[in-house]
User: Fold this.
Amino acid sequence: MQNKVRRFFVAPIFEDPEKTRLARILNGFGWFVISIMLVLIFNRIFTNTWVGGSASFTFPLIVIIVGFMQIMIRLGQVHFAGRFAVTLIWLTLTYQAAQADGLWDVALIAHLAIILLAALMLGWREGVAVGFFSIVTIWYFAYRHHIGSHEFNLDPPFHYARDLTAVFLVTSTLIYYLVYNMNRSLAESNVELKERLRAEAKLQRQADYLTALHETTLGLVNRLELNPLFELILTRTSELFDTPHVAVDIVLPDESTLRQEVGLGIFANYNGEVTPKGQGLIGKVWQDDKVIVSQDYNTWEGRDLEAEYVGFKAVLGAPLKSDNKVIGVLTVANIEKRNEFTSEQILLLERLAALVSVAIDNARLYQESQNEILERKLAEEKLQLQADYLTTLHETTLSLVNRLELNPLLELIIARASDLLDTEEVALHLVLPDESALIQKIGKGLFTQFNEIQTVRNYGITGTVWVSGKSMLIDNYSQWSGRIVEVEGLGFESIICAPLKSEEKVIGVIVAAHTGQQKKFTQEQLTLLEKFAALTSVAIDNARLYQEAQTEIIERKIIETELRASDERFRKVFNNNKVAISIITLEEGIFLEANEAFWQITGLSPEKALGHSVLEFDLWINPQDRTNFVKEIKEKGSLSNVEVTYPTGRKSLAYYELINLKDQLCVVSMFYDVTELRQAERALQESEERFRLVFQASPVAICITTLEEGRLVDANQAYWNLTEYSFEESLGKTAEELDMWESLEDRKLFVEDIKVKRSLTNPNYEFLAYKTHQPRSVIAFYELIELKEQTCVLSMFYDVTEQRQIQEALRNAESRTRAILESMPDMIFEISKDGVFLDYVASTEITPLVPPSEFIGKSIRQLFPAHIVKQTLFSLERAIATEQLHAFEYELKHEGETRFFEARISAVTDETAIVMVRDISQRKWVETEREKLIAELENKNAESETLRESVSIVVETLDKSEAIDRILEQLEKVIPYNSASVQLLDENMLEIVSTRGLEPKSEYIGVRFAITADEPANDLLYGDAPYVLIDDVQVSTNVFTEEKQRKIHGWMAIPLRVKGKLIGIIALDGHEVGQFKKSDAELALTYANQVAIAIENARLFSELQNELIERKRLIEELEVKNAELERFTYTVSHDLKSPLITIKGFLGFLEQDSVSGNVNRLRSDIQRISDATNKMQSLLNELLNLSRVGRLVNQSQKNSFNEIVQDAIDIVQGRLQANNIQLRVQENMPSVYVDRPRIVEVLQNLIDNAAKFARFHPKPLIEIGQDGYEEEKPIFFVRDNGIGIDETHHERIFGLFNKLDADSEGTGVGLALVKRIVELHGGRIWVKSEAGKGATFYFTLPVESES
Assistant:
């Protein structure tokens, strides 16, 4: 209760001391005024002078004003409360004087207290203003009294004395508070000054170390190569510690040892030496991960005996760490003095080691980025090499497709392969027709001597590639196991070989070699040879097709003669055949021909049936069956084993074949009468069905095979499930075809054995399933049986795979468990529910405190103290009850030493559990030492934490804005400021890139302003000042004139430099005059360097990212071009083969038509061959034009576009006139800077394409003109009113060989050629069209050189 009363009367305390001081003055003044007013009120009441006077209004009003002032003070509105009280009390007193005694009223004298209060609360200006208004009021009352405009009633003397006493008391109280607060503030200032002096002395000592660290930091962060960095580290460390003996040791990548990278002084003799963990001082530093100092190394217990002879006196080592992991050790030694290293030097080395660690990380990151850039460059060179190879392949394709005779083609292949692979040693082998051997058809260089020599399968590299169908590369032929002695003697070392394939079948191989060790083939060359081999295969196929076509012409004459004789024989066989045969049309089912057997089996007559449909004779019960029959035979081409029942009751087995008879689809039907056969089969089927049910239902896999061939006759479902063979693929095939035996010799031995023994058993038969290749283990039984007069083998297989897998899994699990137990650093006990030890397992490296023989079978109560027994039994009970792992720690004293253990208990059964015990004494000691070290480090590093955080920020992030914001935040902790900004220099402009304390940031970030003569940082920007420090910028400059800037007084600018070059400044703003000191500026320089490093790192990272993006774009472009080139190669081979097949087909008809004398057919055949030849020639010409684009471009010149259009029209004039197409050309189109012949080719293709599709319109029209500009390039168009193009095909039509109408004329190359030429000139082409509404092709071209 007393505290509440005290808080009610005592002024509140605020964080701002000045605010607290004013609150105290107002609080004391308020309560005193309230007390005086209450006394005066009660006095007037008791003296009967209260009623009727103005005091009855003013005195309570003053109490209310002061009471409201107290409330505002407690709400924190101290300044507002002061202004409120001064204003209203002054007005109240003035009103009181006006209503009472006027010039002689005591209220006028009370104005002195209000003047004093205003000066104390609001400042001297406000005090002067209140005094001025009080004087004006006095003279105003004097004037009114003088002129008699108002009569004033004077108080009696005692009343006047009473009121005057109250005024004096209030004024005296204010004076007292003024003097009291001034003395108190002076005393507090003296205490603060003494503390500040002590702090400055401490900061000066820290500044000396920080300056040294700062200079070292500047040196380290600018070194990005490890060797110069190590040298700088040693130099700086030597200077800081005034000793020449310094060394840096780095942990090797495998973390096995430390290696001294570089050393000075006595350490220079040990560069490259390695140190194991824990050996000597540096080994201990690595092991313990902490600073270690030895003031007398010769007496230090951990000294390295080999280093003892060096003469070290004092040695100091600090760990270099990255991501809390030791990466090296920095060592300083002295051999002249003893006990030299102080606590400050130890702390200095620790901080220096932190900076060195960051610098080493930066250098390693820099080296990694450099290595990555180098790897990307090598990848680009590799891609470029592949592009060159593919270009060569493209040119080779065009050469090969023009060779149709085999021998010239083979010579060209060898020549091209020699050029591609840069070797004179090349040979080509082809598989003989009977596939018995390879024969070398042609060779070059040393291979020439082997022409016409044959090679069998798997003999040498060519025989191996023939069999495997895969390419091979041998770097050292003389060491290859499959080498041929004759070839080895030629000096071949590097050999590559690729198969030639046609429809996935090897038809030959191509081989190349290098002699000597100077040249080696690469994987890229092997890939190139594979692609060349694919092209070679297509060319050889084409040449063989051509030869076959020539041979077929000769053979056709012989065949025609034989066909005439065969036709006569067929007619005799057809009519006299007992098999019913008929020929009917497919769609209508009209009878065209049938033999006598057909009329007999169907009961029809030729007179009624021929020329009529089968539907007229009820041969199809359901007409829909006839429709389904037509659909099925169209899809399959033939049907067999179709059982048909006729109205006569006879059953037949039917075979149907779809044929083309005089350009009409017909069906040849053959019917075998199987009526008696079906009756016999039905009886046999019933007998076999019973056996089949038993056979198929058996869970044992059963199969029947012939003895000699091993042909699969039958098998049940269990067999198919076990072997994964399918019924359709396997039944009827031999053991060799199914690859059921590892070798045919094993099969032969089995046959001989079972012939003798009649039955065999194999309890351990294993094989791989056909599809999944999973291993199967079975017990096999074989029995010799006779089946349909043929000796067969009945095989039964009991699947025991799962049982044997379980057995193997159990053995493996047992081995793994044993290995795990032996490798675990735990002692493992089996313990019963009541605490009796049942068993013990542990690694041989672990020795329990008590031998196992002494605790096995004993209770835990006999061996351990009561508290451990209680904890163990509780955890044991909980583990068995919950079936969850329970763990606890305990300690034991053994031989005077306290040991710590961790126990983990897991239930095995309801009665037993496993207890795993681990000795954690070492871990506990490390944790204790670590806590001590952390506490010590926290105390020592508190002063430099901010600087270290700034360095860490620079290392951690490459985001410029984030790094700068965080560094400014750290800077504010050591140099308090009100606002800050980072401004980058751009010629004569400064741009704000980051702010702190200036809100909203969006109004400041990105603002640029010119550097004027009044710029306060000019001495820094254009002079040699290290920084700019201004006590009050409002006095010394006129730059900060905006309303928001009027608060700024203290101001400081710190330079941002990168490699000595000024790139900007950090500007710090303070609201106090003289807020920043010289020491602040010198400290801020360190943070400015971190900001500059962050900006430079962000710039370098951005440049690196841009470079990587550009390289990625180039690589993607190369990949797209490579893919297009591969598709181009495939399409060329396909589209060239089509005309050749056409030529081959119609060459066969030429001879037939010439013999028959059919001149019209002969001309038609010749025209077809000519059209195919023209199509192939057109395709080759367009491909050659496409290949020249980008390589054979004429020099671009200024050309009139109208003249270019006219050149193109002249070329296609004939087509336009032939299709009666109207042409409109816009006049005065702009000139363009182009290769004229190429653009004529563009317009020729576009006009020709428009004419091709516009000719279907009743009034075909083509328009050519110009419509606006795009990026200062004129947009030209070619428009037609043809059939149009659907929007889904607008992009596709510009692809190579993409034709919307496969039957239309043209090759599909034209628009791809147009697009490539336009893009080569720096323009682009697109189409706008809708189906049925014509098409408009737009394209842009340059009007001047873009170089």
Notes: The longest helix spans residues 1078-1156. The chain has a mean pLDDT of 77.
